[in-house]
Amino acid sequence: MVGVRRAAFVVAAVLLLFGEPWSVLVLLPDWPVAATVSGTVVFAVAALSFPVLMVLGHGPKQNDAAARIGDVTLGTVWVLFTWSVLTHVLRLILLVSGVDDPARPRIVAAVTLAVAAVLLVSGNRIAMRVPPVKAVDVVLPKLGPGLDGLRVAVVTDTHYGPLDRTRWSERLVAELNRLRPDVVCHAGDLADGSVAKRRKQVDPLGGVQAPLGRFYITGNHEYFGEAQAWLDHMASLGWDTLHNRSTLIERDGARLLFAGIDDPTGAASGLPGHGPDLAAALDGSDPDVPVVLLAHQPKQVAQAREENVDLQISGHTHGGQIWPFHLLVRLDQPTLSGLTRHGPTQLYNSRGSGFWGPPFRVFAPNEIALLTLRSA
Description:
6-stranded mixed sheet; Calcineurin-like_PHP; Metallo-depent_PP-like; 11 helices; alpha/beta; Metallophosphoesterase; elongated; hydrolase; Metallophosphoesterase_sf; 376 residues
């Protein structure tokens, strides 16, 4: 019964995503018959092949060619769907202004297509660029003067996947090293796929330089593949894997605890010892020493605030990645991006450095966060 409901949902979603832009771009403008038939065929083929491509690309077989085509299709149809809906407002304005058929629906179709094209081209350029640096000062009242000014670079959601971004990875590392941070953190969703398939893209991260520590935690996407293998591989690259554990750093007599917990999906992964365990991560910690917690999902701040964690660093949301998907993200997470306060705990949520699936970012730019920690 669950399978039937799931299949019905997928069919309904595909019909809606493809049907709305088809009606705006092909059906309503009353194009010549040949153009209408050709456009209908294009949308029908795309709609029928899309679920197959996504299953082949992101299912157990992980066919990268299928994933690339499916991902581009997903991003394109989402943008077309969004702006097909929004341009119904333009249709109403043209109707009130006295613009008659067939000019009215053809103007709407042209505007929809033009806006979507601009957003997809610019969105791809943003997604594929080395992320700009977002500098933020964070005051931690318990931080000792010796660590005042500590520079923490944060990358997250790199999602190394079907599209080979080895060169992008090398440029990301060069940018991180240019910043000369004291600490570098990767807050999860490192890669989609096995270590064997993605290590070429990930291995440049071994060249990241940070004198006081390089810390990595799992995100939910690691648990779609090989979470423990990725922990082991990042450890082999010299990263400190905070798998429900912590590491103390010191400078000039001041101390700071970096702790990390697994993504919640780890609890159902079947891997022994996986799943968030904040008590284990903070076991034996000194209450006078401030704590920076790496937790992939912002909503994990609910547990962090109970333990009086000073700062949580998260990712996961991508800032919505392709507008207006952020509206759905906010149904599940307390924040999309930036620095917010949750009781005694501050939360910095990064928009992420890479992208998942569609190689587009629309009104949700990527980032490298550079957090400068300040004492009171």
